[in-house]
Amino acid sequence: MSELDEEFPCSIAISIPLPTHRLASSALRALQVDAELSPLVRRSFLLAPSTTGELISHGNLIVETTRVLLVDYKATTNRMLRVAVNGFMESFRVVLDIMEQLDMDVLSLAT
Helix 21-32 vs helix 78-102: angle between axes, to the nearest 10 degrees? Predict the structure, then answer.
């Protein structure tokens, strides 16, 4: 959870696991381009490893995958936080719909 900020006391941390690092990275890049419309809201993104500690081997190198999209929102009021998160969820749904319809990896994971 986010630490208390006097200027932005209302906060939420959203953790969204995705099937692969590539999809998580694509979602991050697609969502980052839109700045928050209100100066009363702050948002940050981060890719993180899954909590299962999933490891992938690349030759002699073993790396942990970063396939969880972390979104941290801070706002001056609960209302501003709710409005910002609702807008983010709508945008994220559009990104997921596009991935589902156009990305071959998503289709192969669903079967």
Answer: 130
> Are the C-beta atoms of residues 19 and 67 closer than 8 Å to each other?
yes
Task: Give the DSSP H/E element, type plus range, for residue 74.
Answer: strand 66-75
Nearest to 14 by CA among 2, 32, 25, 31: 2
Please, are residues 20 and 103 in contact by the beta-carbon 8 Å criterion?
no
Cα(20)–Cα(27) distance, integer angstroms: 11
Residue type at 11 in one-letter notation: S
CA–CA separation, 92 vs 71, rounded Å?
Answer: 11
Tell me the per-residue pLDDT of 64-93, one tens digit each, with 9 for 90 and over: 578 899 999 999 999 999 999 999 999 999
pTM of the complete model beyond 0.85: no
Q: How far apart are CA 39 and CA 18, in angstroms?
A: 29
